[in-house]
């Protein structure tokens, strides 16, 4: 076995063994000059010159919020020579809502969010690093206490790997809260939670209790602590932090954009 491995290495060095090279598709070049927004029957569509934007499945792309449509048009306008779809989070979220590739219903996302809180990042403190545990208690506990008071629940931190169980009443309170949002906004919640691994920090951002930068910092608390001891690759860790901030910002904006109209209608009806 070892002889075979050494033989293959030698053949590669001599250039006699073919080396497979992975080729990635080049990003599409920007094919339009101007972006715009057109409205019809309460829906807003994005135009790229004279063409209307479509989803990955080829369906008409539209949103029901004018500010969201303007933000999406800005994403497309910000593209330079090539189109980097990985940086266009509002476009991706809106396309996901329309195409619904995973066939998610509203109750599926509500259950996902409610069940996620059992494994929320800020509830699990270190059991091996006293300094880290002290920092986690200092930074995370006030957020948990705020969440308990704000949503009438009773979350508690732990330093074990056992996933805690919660009272049925607390689950009902959380379900009622998330069910008050429409399907599009729930997609924003799921995207945010998947980004920072914390529904508590996401709720704190949506309620404007903490800013985006603080939420990302708290979500990365253990990683930042370890970097303080072992050092970091600045460009790599900085890119990860900024990417998380961009994703969380897009998610929170998406929630706001998809709930503001409902709030306006509710106030008018009063």
Automatic annotation (TrEMBL):
Which InterPro entries does the entry mention? ATP12_ATP_synth-F1-assembly, ATP12_ATP_synth-F1-assembly_N, ATP12_ortho_dom_sf
Q: Which domain of life is it from?
A: Eukaryota
Which cellular compartments is it found in? Mitochondrion
Q: For this UniProt record, give its keywords in alphabetical order, as a comma-separated list.
A: Chaperone, Mitochondrion, Transit peptide
Main location as per UniProt: mitochondrion
Question: Which Pfam families has this protein been placed in?
Answer: ATP12
A single Gene Ontology CC term: mitochondrion
Give GO BP annotations, semicolon-separated: mitochondrial proton-transporting ATP synthase complex assembly
In the record, the note on similarity to other proteins reads: Belongs to the ATP12 family.
From the Swiss-Prot or TrEMBL record, give the protein name.
ATP synthase mitochondrial F1 complex assembly factor 2
Q: Which organism is the protein's source?
A: Anopheles minimus
């Amino acid at each position: 076995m070892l002889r075979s491995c050494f033989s293959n290495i030698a053949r590669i060095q001599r250039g006699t063994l073919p080396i497979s090279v992975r080729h990635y598709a080049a990003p599409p070049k920007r094919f339009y000059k101007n972006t715009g927004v057109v409205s019809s029957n309460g829906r807003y569509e994005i135009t790229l010159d004279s063409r209307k934007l479509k989803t990955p499945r080829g369906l008409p792309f539209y949103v029901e919020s004018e500010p969201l449509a303007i933000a999406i048009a800005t994403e497309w306008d910000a593209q330079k020579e090539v189109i980097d779809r990985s940086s266009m989070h509002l476009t991706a979220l809106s396309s996901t809502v329309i195409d619904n590739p995973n066939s998610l219903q509203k109750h599926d996302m509500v259950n996902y969010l409610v069940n996620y809180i059992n494994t929320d990042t800020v509830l699990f403190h270190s059991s091996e690093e006293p300094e880290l545990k002290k920092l986690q208690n200092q930074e995370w506990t006030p957020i948990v206490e705020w969440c308990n008071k704000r949503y009438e629940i009773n979350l508690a931190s732990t330093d074990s790997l056992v996933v805690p169980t919660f009272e049925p009443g607390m689950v009902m309170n959380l379900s009622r809260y998330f069910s008050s949002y429409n399907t599009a906004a729930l997609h924003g919640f799921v995207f945010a939670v998947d980004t920072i691994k914390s529904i508590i920090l996401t709720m704190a951002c949506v309620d404007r209790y903490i800013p985006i930068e603080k939420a990302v910092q708290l979500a990365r608390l253990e990683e930042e602590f370890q970097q303080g001891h072992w050092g970091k690759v600045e460009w790599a860790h900085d890119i990860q932090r900024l990417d998380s901030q961009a994703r969380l910002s897009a998610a929170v904006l998406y929630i706001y954009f998809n709930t503001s109209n409902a709030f306006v209608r509710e106030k008018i009806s009063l």
